Amino acid sequence: MLNKVLDSFDAAVADIPNGAVVMIGNFAGPGGTPYYLIHALARQGARDLTIVANTAGGVGLTLDYDDHRLLFQNRQVRKVIASFPFSTSASRPSIAEKQILANEVELEIVPQGTLSERIRAGGAGIAAFYTPTGAGTVIESGKERRVFDGRPHLLELALKADFALIRAYKADTFGNLVYRGTARQFNPVMAAAAAVTIAEVDHIVDPGELDPDAVVTPGIFVKRIVQVKEDPGFPRHPERTFQVRGQHQGKEA
Fold first, then answer.
1. Domains of the chain
2. pTM of the model
3. Mean of pLDDT values over 55-60
């Protein structure tokens, strides 16, 4: 097996072309967001991208930081497939929200559970599935509807990507991944649903050093790994979040 470790985030995303479908792991907070890979893609400049993510960036449920909203700021996005594309504050619309409302970016809104299952299906080789979620709402528009056990269901198609930018806590050089906290949300299912999965990790170890029971994503799904070697300046792990929150509360007291 090949060593999948790259020296830089820029090298890891260098071949992402215009028009690519890119999945980005995130859950409206920095813990599971591939922060450095996103910045590298923003520098790289690929355009007309279709972004698949839980949010469209800049939602700010926890901390305000530069996530994939950078790609919208750079006008790199043609379409976004997301569950929470708009800001939590009507008075502070996100960059993506403004572009969507101006018909500059196409939006496909997908319920969160359905989004996760569509991605999981893509990785599992399942072409489509039926779900009751969204039946009788605007989500139903243009979708096949069938009734099972007296309840209407919608046909949802699997989602696949050309590239997935994900974040994990630890990897070995073969690409086996271990997650922590909120990093274990969309990242594992996205890792299996992309042709090329690129993982941003905090630690890299030699093969055999990871506890097999702790591995969530097998290395067969991961093509490239890049290690974070600097502090981004905001909390990315649960214990640091609690520490920072406690310091902040102490200052207020």
1. 9-252 (3.40.1080.10)
2. 0.89
3. 79
